From TrEMBL:
Coiled-coil ranges (or none): none
Keyword Signal: yes
Superkingdom of origin: Eukaryota
Pfam families: Hydrolase_4
Keywords: Signal
Domain Serine aminopeptidase S33: 85-243
Record-linked InterPro entries: AB_hydrolase_fold, Hydrolase_4
Signal peptide stretch: 1-17
SUPFAM superfamilies tied to this protein: alpha/beta-Hydrolases
Designated name of the protein: Serine aminopeptidase S33 domain-containing protein
Length: 291
């Protein structure tokens, strides 16, 4: 019996230690004891989660265009769109921004995927009475939420816009050589991070929190990931008065930015969605894609 214990006990202890390293810490839910405060209006979804939102533009009942905006990686609903108030009023635009699951003041969704994001958007639109059809505009990582809308709720869309959207480099609908060339243009730390998110997602938390090697350049806001034109735009944005605090990670990094990487670059994430675009013609959905 003793020899067995000598063998089994270290294995069990090693397993516990390994699980502790891989397991993310509990999420600090908004409004919970010790968690971040609630400062935004929220709706309660069918599954019990809460989704925080912000309304802007003209009054909803007078709007000609009702647009749901979907924020980027490591961002929130509170980052303002670079559009003038005069233009919004002239065109009659109502803007509805929301914190995606796990970001800002929206509850995390451990089952978050492309479909769940689309259904969150649909339920948000219904609870705020946007009507049968509305527009969606996704920026950067928010692009995969737009792909989800095109696949799962195309009948609810009056139009869809993709602004510098992310792509999945393992998306089979792209030419393989083109995907490889684009992937190689990423800085090396970003290549490693996306490869792990796609191939061994269980190790992503460990990779993103270790200190020996640089992990996601995007998560670290490393300037190498930006082009010359990007830097010019960012410098102009940084020169603007900043009154908005970015609360993207306040509930924890795993359910916000880590989960984003897992959904966007996971296996099969975009396979169905790209093929689903064939439904758009019959639904008369307009697409504007800016890369």
């Amino acid at each position: 019996m003793a020899p067995k214990l000598v063998f089994v006990l270290p294995v069990v202890l090693l397993g516990w230690a390994f699980q502790a390293i891989l397991r993310p810490p509990p999420t600090k839910l908004c409004g919970s004891p010790g968690g971040p405060p609630l400062t935004s209006p929220r709706i309660k979804l069918r599954d019990g989660r809460h989704l925080a939102y912000r309304e802007d533009g003209v009054q909803k009942d007078k709007a000609r265009y009702k647009i749901i905006t979907i924020h980027a990686f490591d961002s929130t609903k509170d980052i303002p769109l670079p559009v003038s108030k005069e233009l919004v009023e002239e065109l009659g635009i109502y803007l509805l921004a929301f914190d995606r699951a796990g970001y800002g003041e929206s509850d995390p969704n451990p089952k978050r995927d492309v479909k769940s994001e689309a259904l969150d958007i649909e339920e948000l639109a219904d609870q705020l009475e946007l009507g049968q059809k509305f527009y969606v505009l996704g920026t950067s990582m928010g692009g995969y939420s737009v792909w989800g809308c095109l696949q799962y709720i195309p009948h609810r869309l009056a139009g869809a816009a993709l602004v510098v959207p992310v792509i999945n480099y393992w998306w089979p609908s792209f030419p393989a050589e083109l995907s490889r060339q684009a992937f190689k243009k990423q800085v090396v730390p970003e290549q490693r991070t996306l490869w792990i998110a796609h191939n061994v997602p269980s190790l992503l938390y460990l990779w993103m929190t270790q200190k020996w090697l640089p992990s996601s350049a995007a998560a670290m806001h490393h300037p190498e990931i930006f082009s010359k034109h990007d830097m010019e735009v960012l410098q102009k944005m940084m020169a603007m008065p900043r009154t908005i605090e970015n609360k993207s990670r306040q509930q924890g990094t795993y359910e916000s930015i880590h989960r984003d990487l897992l959904v966007a670059f996971g296996r099969g994430t975009f396979r169905r969605n790209f093929h689903g675009l064939s439904t758009m013609k019959s639904e008369k959905v307009d697409i504007c894609s800016c890369c």
